[in-house]
Design goal:
Blueprint lengths: L9 E6 L3 H17 L3 E6 L35 H9 L12 H17 L4 E6 L3 E7 L2 E6 L4 E4 L1 E4 L13 H4 L22 E5 L3 H10 L5 E5 L28 H14 L4 H8 L3 H7 L2 H10 L1 H8 L4 H13 L1
Parallel strand pairs: 1-2, 1-7, 2-3, 8-9
Antiparallel strand pairs: 4-5, 5-6
């Protein structure tokens, strides 16, 4: 164009297209539309946007661990996910209901699609390749992909999720067995399980609960094993609204963090579920405020107790587990 200069839109790479990556792209697209900013967003992931590890399951028994009213993609519109469920899944889906995770993956994908449609100056691309290297080149960043190509971008968001659990504890003979499943979410040939068989689940967290539902059918005995032996706790059947997050100074030591949580529980009239739900918007901020020694101490000794109260399960699933345990 003679006599005029055009500035190319910034390119933002989002590495990972699970919940965090998909929501990042959607929020970035909406913000760009609000400010009239042109931006190219590139999602790098071999999987489907919105799924990731958490929501890749297709088993309808695997539920969200937060009621539908608390799972909106948009903080300013708390009912967004609930309306989507009532439009696409069940017209009378309860706000305190726990939706199958496969529906949440579909929801996240639709959120990104809608944000893309509403943002004419935003271009969103999904590249089904894995990023193998990232380095600075001048004022930009260069990504190396597993197909041998490179991409230059202006900014990168790492949304790679959790690394697979270590299996270094497994003896070689166990690790080689076709009945050993090192990663229950990895696609592959599932072991054959028949009536009369017994299964050992190493761990008692949310994934163990999912696998207990998957394998714990009639005639199959499931053993859940962990160092602490503490399965997740249930949500309240009908939880009252969570209180507003505390405004007190953020703790920097583990002792201060414990005190902060106990003060929140007392402010919620002793209802620890309401108090923990009220802290949900602050958890990332609270973690980042702790010094490194406090973070290490938390991971070494307190993380499992926190996980139990923070990541609770559908009361119906908890009741099913307790019934199976009672029946032996």
């Amino acid at each position: 164009m003679s006599g005029a200069s055009m500035t190319a839109p910034a390119t933002v790479a989002v590495i990972g297209s699970g919940a965090s990556g998909t929501l990042t792209a959607a929020h970035l697209a909406r913000r760009a539309a609000q400010t009239g900013t042109a931006v190219d967003i590139v999602l790098f992931d071999k999987g489907t946007p919105g799924a990731g590890v958490a929501y890749s399951t297709t088993d309808p028994r695997h539920r969200l661990n937060v009621p539908a009213r608390g799972m909106s993609a948009w903080p300013e519109d708390s009912g967004h996910f609930l309306r989507w469920l009532r439009r696409h899944v069940a017209v009378d889906f309860p706000e305190d209901g726990f939706a199958p995770r496969l529906h949440y993956a579909q929801y996240l994908s639709s959120v990104l699609d809608q944000a893309r449609r509403e943002s004419p100056q935003v271009h969103v691309q999904h590249v089904r390749h894995r990023v193998t290297d990232l380095r600075a080149v001048g004022n930009r960043l260069r990504l190396s992909l597993d197909d041998g190509t490179n991409r230059a971008v202006d900014a990168v968001v790492l949304a790679v999720g959790h690394a697979p659990a270590s299996t270094s504890w497994a003896p070689p003979t166990l690790a080689r067995s076709p009945q050993f499943v090192p990663d229950p979410w990895r696609r592959g040939v599932a072991p054959v399980v028949e009536a009369g068989d017994e299964i050992v689940l190493v761990g008692t967290g949310l994934t163990a609960v999912d696998m207990a539902q998957r394998w714990g059918r009639d005639g199959v005995r499931v053993h859940m094993v962990s160092r602490h032996g503490m399965p997740p706790l249930p949500h309240a059947a009908a939880a009252p609204p969570a209180p507003a997050p505390p405004t007190a100074r953020r703790p920097t030591t583990l002792a201060e963090a414990r005190h902060f949580v106990f003060v929140a529980i007392r402010a919620a009239d002793g209802d620890w579920r309401r108090a923990i739900d009220g802290l949900r918007p602050l958890t990332s901020e609270l973690w980042q405020a702790l010094d490194e020694s406090a973070q290490r101490a938390f991971l070494a000794g307190s993380v499992r107790r926190w996980d139990r109260v923070r990541h609770r399960v559908d009361p119906a699933i908890h009741a099913w587990l307790e019934q199976r345990r009672t029946e032996g």
